[in-house]
Specification:
Elements: H1 2-18, H2 25-39, E1 42-48, H3 53-62, H4 68-74, E2 75-81, H5 96-102, E3 110-114, E4 120-123, H6 139-152, H7 158-169
Parallel strand pairs: 1-2
Antiparallel strand pairs: 1-3, 3-4
Helix pairs in contact: 6-7
Length: 176
Amino acid sequence: MRATSITLLLFALLVSIAVADAPSAENILGAAETKAAAEKKAVFVHFGASWCVWCHRLDAYLDRPDVKPVFEKYFVPVKLDMGEKGDQKALENAGADKMAKDLGGPGFPFWAFLDAKGGLIANSNAKGPGSNVGYPGAPAEIEWFAKTIKQAAPKISEAELQTLVTPLKTPPPVKG
């Protein structure tokens, strides 16, 4: 009887964890800001959704073995989910939509570089509000991304910047 009770309790706990909502955008960004302050880095926050092909391309770019170590040398990357529908709604980080709007969004993906206190350094709006670059794939978008990287990480070397920019010129196909 006791073993059955323990098994049922563990099952209930696992079910509650499995259906728990995603962490809030505020909690995730707060932890990233703390880490960024301790490591003297900026925060790179990007907003996306599971259904967004360009968001998947940005994720794949940030995970590239040549890009990731250089990018994470200067930035604490944070991904926040918003704009989900139906069964995917539980993936959303509460408050991400408002946060994206406050930082100059919307759009998918939308990204921003922040200082360790959450202050905006630069975002993906290359020509002002409503001009979201999203995934930087076109030459002018890549140029904007490089400019914002330099704003957020003024000590980045030209070689490191080229390590980050060059793969954007011929991105690999990503399944959406």
